[in-house]
TrEMBL record:
Pfam families: Cupin_2, HTH_18. One of its GO terms (biological process) is positive regulation of metabolic process. The keyword Transcription applies. Regulatory protein of the TOL plasmid xyl operons. XylS activates the xylXYZLTEGFJQKIH operon required for the degradation of toluene, m-xylene and p-xylene. This is AraC family transcriptional regulator.
Length: 254
């Protein structure tokens, strides 16, 4: 079980996962790009993000970010610890949102961040006090829009032969890598690299069926360094080898 309160440092390394408990992430310094279920925001000082239980989320910080994280143990803990504030706290924890802190709440967050939060008593009592103080915060809308698939597809097609990375697609979409990853999971149910691989293989099938290019040449054009790796990828994706796909295509057109 995670500690209730913890101090965390985030870097450009992408974190993407979900967990079965609610979480609040409070900005202390720097800017943290954050996505919850495909909707994005940025966590800075005097703001925090609500991550409901089970919500897929991703985050990363280009220049580094320091945050106070509250991992809520569960609903029974909320009931036992928050008493009259429990219902309001549940409503807070049930909806993904970025919220702003007033001066008093921000002071409490900073005080807890400078306290020994690894002490179980301080962490438990501090979490209760912090949650109770947040029940009147106002949500700020999280940004959401469809990914620019046409632009992404055009970029993949133009540079299919090169070693494309998530950061390349993120630049096309105008998003951070963390936001792009979470947006793809929410909209497509797959990662950006899965999408990239699928687009390359779709291009390869078109070349196999519509041109007489050698299979090795097609493999190179869609970013595979070896024909064997390309053939294995095609077999996994389509259940047939490149040669079989080409022969089947020829039979259909005769």
């Amino acid at each position: 079980m995670h500690p209730i309160l913890s101090l965390r440092h985030y870097t450009h390394d992408l974190i993407a996962h979900s967990h079965d408990h609610p979480q609040l992430v409070f900005g202390l310094s720097g800017a943290l790009d954050f996505e919850v279920d495909g909707y994005g925001s940025q966590v800075r000082q005097q703001s925090f993000v609500v991550v409901p239980a089970g919500a897929h989320h991703a985050c990363g910080s280009i220049d580094g970010s320091r945050c106070l994280v509250l991992d809520v143990p569960g609903d029974s803990w909320v009931t036992q610890s928050l008493d009259a504030h429990a219902d309001a706290s549940r409503r807070l924890l049930d909806s993904a949102a970025r919220r702003s802190l007033d001066a008093g709440q921000s002071q409490l967050v900073n005080w807890l961040a400078s306290s020994p939060v690894d002490d179980p008593l301080i962490a438990r009592q501090g979490a209760v006090l912090l949650l109770a103080s947040l029940n009147n915060t106002n949500p700020v809308a999280l940004a959401g829009r469809r990914l620019p698939y046409a632009a992404l597809d055009a970029h993949i097609e133009q540079y299919a032969a090169y070693p494309l990375q998530v950061a390349d697609l993120a630049r096309v979409a105008g998003l951070s890598s963390a936001r792009l990853h979470a947006r793809f999971i929410a909209e497509c149910g797959q990662t950006p690299m899965d999408y990239l691989r699928n687009r390359r293989l779709q291009m390869a099938v078109k070349l196999l069926c519509d041109t007489p290019l050698p299979i090795g040449e097609i493999a190179s054009r869609v970013g595979y360094s070896s024909q064997s790796a390309f053939s294995a990828a095609v077999l996994r994706e389509f259940g047939a080898s490149p040669g079989q796909l080409r022969r089947e295509s020829g039979a259909k057109t005769r």
